[in-house]
Amino acid sequence: MPGTDKNSGPFRISVNRDARSGLTEQIRSAITQAIGEGRLKPGARMPSCRDLAAQLGVARGTVRSAYDMLADSQLLEAKGAAGTFITQYPPITISNSVPSVALTPLPDIVCDYDTPPLTFQMGVPATDAFPASVWSRILQRHARSSATQPVCYPDPRGSLALRQELVAYLAMSRGVNCQAAQIIITNGYAGALGLVCLAMGFRDAQAWIEEPGYLLACKALGLVGIEPVPIAVDEQGIRVSEGIQRAPAASFALVTAGQQSPLGMALSPERRSELLAWAQENHRWIIEDDYLGELQLSSRAAPALASRDSAGRVIHIGTFSKTLSPALRLGFVVVPLALAARFGDIAAAMAPASGAVSHNAVAEFLREGHFLRHLRRMKRLYAERMEKMMQALQPHFPQLRRGGLAVIVQLPAGIADRIIAREALAWGMAPSPLSAWFQRDELRQYGLILGVTNMPGDGFEQCAQKLRQLVDAHLPVVTSPGSD
Ligand SMILES: Cc1ncc(COP(=O)(O)O)c(C=O)c1O
C-alpha cells in the first residue's frame, strides 16, 4: 500500500485504463499530487514496485518507469535495498488544488495572447496572406542545418547574415545608411526598447512620448523608472515646441516618425528638422519606432528619421511583427556608430538576441526577394481591405479617417468607447478605444480604431452594422422640449 509509513497518512491511488493519459503518467501524477498536498510526507517510504504494481493491476515496469520519472524530478529517492523514499526536501510541486493567480501580463493593454485575431484587431498582419509554404520550407531548412552545427554560443547581436541583409534592405527601403555592426537583432520592438533603456541608462529620466500614442511604449518607460511626458501630435506629427516647453530636460523623444501611431500621419520635414536640431544641440536622443516600416498604403513611405541623422542622435527600431508575424518576436535596433560597442557589450552580458534559426530564415527570405514580394502583396491587399471597410462603415458612421493600417471611427466626446470596445469582444470584434491612447483629459478624443488587416469571410458589412448598434446603445438620449 503506498505511503503506509506512520508519518505518511492514508494514501491511495487508482488508475483508469480508459483515460487519455497512459498508466505511467497517471501513477506519476497521482504521487506528485499527493506529495504537493502533503498526503505523502518527506522521508516516507514508498511501496516496492512489485507491491504497487500488484495493487494497481499493472506491470511492474510501469510503476518503475513512474518512480524513475519521479526520481528524475527529485521527488523520490531510491536507496537500494532499503527501498524508495519521498525525498527530504522535495521541490515545490504545483498542486491543482492551489488557486492560481491570474497571470496575464498587462491585462489592461493586451487583448489576449496566443489567440487568433478578431475582426478589427489592430497590430496583427493578415492571417490568410501569410506566405506559409515558402516560409516553412526555408525555416525547416535552417532548423535542420542548425541541428547539425557545432554546439556554441552565437553572436549576442544576432545572426550576421540577417544583419547584413538588413543593411541592404534599410538602405534601399528606409534610406538608412549603416553597417552590420550597428544592428542588433531583438525580440521585436518591445525587446529593442528594453535593450535601449538598459544600454542608455535612462533611469529617472524624462522622455517625450506622442499623445495620442502607443500605450505599451508608455507603460514600458514607466516600468523602468522613466517619466513619460505626453506631447501632443497635430497633422505634422509631434509638436516639438510643446516638448521643449513642457519637458526641456527630457533625455529622449520616442516617436513614430514614418506613420504616427495611431493617427497615421508622417512627421513633416519641418518637424523632422526641429526634432533633430533639438537632439543635436542639446545632446539628447531620439528613439524612432519604425514599426510599420515601408507598409504605407496610400503613397510611397516617408523615409526613416534615422536617414537624416548626421550627428548620431537617432536610435532606430524596426520590427517584423507587422510585415511578417508578431509570433516570430523579431525586431532590430540600429544604433549610431559611437554606441555600437556599448550595445554589443550589453547584449552579450545581459540581453542576447534569440537563437539564430529564425534570423537566418528571415535573412534568406529577404535575400531571395520573398520579403519584398510579400510586402507588395500586403500593401495591395490592405489597401483593398481598407476600401471595403470604408464602404461598409460609411453608411453607419459619418466621421471616418484612415490611420496606418486602421480606420478611425470618430465618436462624440465623452462616449464610453472603452465599454463599447469591451462589448464588441462578445461579437468577435476587437476595436481599440481611441480615448485610451490619450493621457490628458483635455486632449482626449473618442472613437474606435479598427484594424483593416483581417477581414471576416462574409465581409465587413455585418460587423459595421453591429458596431453601430453597440455605439447607439451608449449615445445620450436626446429628449425634445416638452417630451416629459
Ligand atoms: C506603435 C507600435 N510600435 C511597435 C509595435 C510592435 O511591437 P513588437 O515588435 O514588440 O511586436 C506595435 C505593435 O502593435 C505598435 O503599435
List keywords for this structure.
484 residues; alpha/beta; Arc Repressor Mutant, subunit A; Aspartate Aminotransferase, domain 2; Aspartate Aminotransferase, domain 1; 3 domains; eight-stranded mixed sheet; four-stranded antiparallel sheet; binds pyridoxal-5'-phosphate
CATH fold group of the largest domain: Aspartate Aminotransferase, domain 2
Total beta strand runs: 15
Which ligands occur here?
Answer: pyridoxal-5'-phosphate
Range of strand content: 5-15%
Description:
This protein is an alpha/beta fold. It has three domains: 100 residues, Orthogonal Bundle (Arc Repressor Mutant, subunit A); 245 residues, Type I PLP-dependent aspartate aminotransferase-like (Major domain) (Aspartate Aminotransferase, domain 2), CATH 3.40.640; 95 residues, Alpha-Beta Complex (Aspartate Aminotransferase, domain 1). It contains 14 helices and 15 strands. The strands form three sheets. Strands 4-11-10-9-8-5-6-7 form an eight-stranded mixed β-sheet, with helices on both faces. Helix 5 packs across helix 11. The relative contact order is 0.11. The N terminus is likely disordered. Pyridoxal-5'-phosphate (PLP) binds next to helix 6.
SSE layout and pairings?
Elements: H1 23-36, E1 45-46, H2 49-56, H3 60-72, E2 76-78, E3 84-86, H4 132-147, H5 160-174, E4 183-186, H6 188-200, E5 206-211, H7 215-223, E6 227-234, E7 237-238, H8 240-246, E8 252-255, H9 269-282, E9 285-289, E10 314-319, E11 331-334, H10 340-350, H11 356-367, H12 370-393, E12 400-403, E13 406-411, H13 417-425, E14 432-433, E15 446-451, H14 461-472
Parallel strand pairs: 5-6, 5-8, 8-9, 9-10
Antiparallel strand pairs: 1-3, 2-3, 4-11, 6-7, 10-11, 12-13, 13-15, 14-15
Helix pairs in contact: 1-3, 2-3, 4-11, 5-11, 6-7, 6-10, 12-14, 13-14
The structure holds pyridoxal-5'-phosphate (PLP).
